[in-house]
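Protein in question passed on here:
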Amino acid sequence: MKLLLITLTLTIAACQEEKAVGDTAPQRLDTTFFAPEIGAKWTYLATTESLANPNQRQQKSPDLMKTTIERVQIYDGPKIIDGKPYYQNSVYHDGKFQEGFILGWDGRVLNIAGSHSPDTPLKLTQNPIPIAQIDMVPGTYWHWPPNAPIGDGSRVVAFETIKVPAGTFEAYKVSIRKNPPGVISLREYWFAPRIGIIKETNRIYSKGKLQSRTTIELTSSPSGST
């Protein structure tokens, strides 16, 4: 699920910009949202601005090309793999199949457990990507993948109100850190306990220059807003 195949290489500046968060009671994760009725649909609008000329000098207002697509996620239904239940989803960009993924749930952590496509069977990944857990508060942290450098992973930095085209939600803001060579990718997502992912942002830098920035926002979901 590229919406959540998240990379980050610097200590998140956005984390430093967050206002201090006091003690916040954890929100119990409602597990029904990732196994709704078969055919349930989440619709997103994804806008990407890419540097028109990657070789141009860094400017205060770089020349960016803007593209917008409709991203639709559909729940295909439950699947049993090696005796364990999973939840299959498909993603379409402007009506064309883009990727398939399955969610895993071990009673505590919700994760992206594998992938599929029209031409290949379901395939479990060696290192499932954690998205959320049954109890979360600001400061909750997942080290991922297991062999990553110390400090790489996902951290909940806030529980806040956020507005997107689908409505207004109470959501966890999660920042991700990872260190691929030669690239700086700053990515965050907002996770609402009864809805799922409602927003994601991603900025990619190379040699100190912004290469692209993408914003994905929920426009409709099976559950509606909170």
